[in-house]
Design a protein that fits this description.
The structure is a single chain. By secondary structure, this protein is α/β, with parallel strands linked by helices. 22% of the residues lie in helices and 36% in strands. A six-stranded mixed sheet has the order 3-4-5-2-1-8, with helices on both faces. The protein has a two-stranded antiparallel ribbon with strand order 6-7. 20% of the residues are buried. The model has no long low-confidence stretch (mean pLDDT 86).
């Protein structure tokens, strides 16, 4: 099974409305790919805490989500800052060895 690494700002956050990456990952899973997501945001249930403030959530055999806690700047700026996000992406690439990377 081929692996796709999806680098997205957020993943189904209640106060951030980006859903395109969620729908894209769902489509890839239906097509038979394993999807690994790297994003910023808060933690969910069933999370394995890794060092460096990184959360790894294994949803199913075909979906794994790595989250880096961020600082969200509200209106009028509306963007998040996650120190060490690039380091997390490089580590996930090294550990997961994806066949395709989508940003």
């Amino acid at each position: 099974m081929k692996t796709i690494l999806l680098i997205s700002p957020y993943w189904k956050e209640p106060h951030r409305w980006m859903v395109s990456s969620f729908k894209l990952a769902e489509l890839w899973q239906r097509l038979g790919y394993r999807v690994v997501v790297v994003c910023m945001g808060s933690t969910k249930s069933q999370v394995t805490r890794a060092k460096g403030g990184v959360d790894c959530e294994r949803i199913s055999e075909t979906l794994t989500i790595y989250r880096k806690k961020d600082i969200f700047l509200k209106d009028p700026l509306n963007f998040g800052i996650a120190l060490g996000f690039t380091h997390l992406v490089r580590r996930v690439i090294r550990d997961e060895k994806p066949d395709l990377i989508v940003v």
